Backbone:
């Protein structure tokens, strides 16, 4: 009986053959390969964080939870002086539609259309009130769309693709 350590695991060999008994200079017998630990773990499934933001004119400022998103301070969204988070939800991103609630008893169905080799995601969003959008973004890149708007008020939807849960 012999013991060996493979990839951090202790493995016991009963009745080891000469090839296993003498691993040779490389540490393993010829013809045996062990995948690196990182390759053995499944890839984390992507998700989408959905932000519902109420924006109004005035001097209320941007809510602290939104302050680290520079796109909200760029045109055309910077025309609103006050922004607050109405809701924040995360849904799985995959070929099967995931649904998330929106204000006013509305919803959005979100589906992954494709993922490029450069890890850019093409995402389809269909709204229960009709209409749809498609956007392409890398992980962590926010995409914003205005769904309801008046000159002094808007509901902004933000979508941020995330790696893993």
Residues:
């Amino acid at each position: 009986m012999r013991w060996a350590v493979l990839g951090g695991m202790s493995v016991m060999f009963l009745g080891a053959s000469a090839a296993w008994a003498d691993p040779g200079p490389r540490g393993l017998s010829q013809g045996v390969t062990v995948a690196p630990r990182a390759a053995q773990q499944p890839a984390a499934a992507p998700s989408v964080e959905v932000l519902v933001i109420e924006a109004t004119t005035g001097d209320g400022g941007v809510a602290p939870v939104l302050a680290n998103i520079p796109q909200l301070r760029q045109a055309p969204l910077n025309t609103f002086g006050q922004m607050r988070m109405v809701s924040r939800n995360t849904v799985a991103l995959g070929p099967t539609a995931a649904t998330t609630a929106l204000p006013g008893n509305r919803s959005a169905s979100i589906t992954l259309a494709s993922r490029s080799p450069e890890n850019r995601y093409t995402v389809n969003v269909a709204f229960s009130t009709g209409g749809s959008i498609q956007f392409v973004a890398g992980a962590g890149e926010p995409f914003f769309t205005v769904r309801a708007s008046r000159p002094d008020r808007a509901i902004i939807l933000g979508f941020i693709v995330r790696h893993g849960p």
Remarks:
- Confidence is low (pLDDT under 50) at residues 1-41.
- The longest helix spans residues 18-21.
- The chain is about 5% helix and 50% strand.
- Helices lie at 18-21, 37-40.
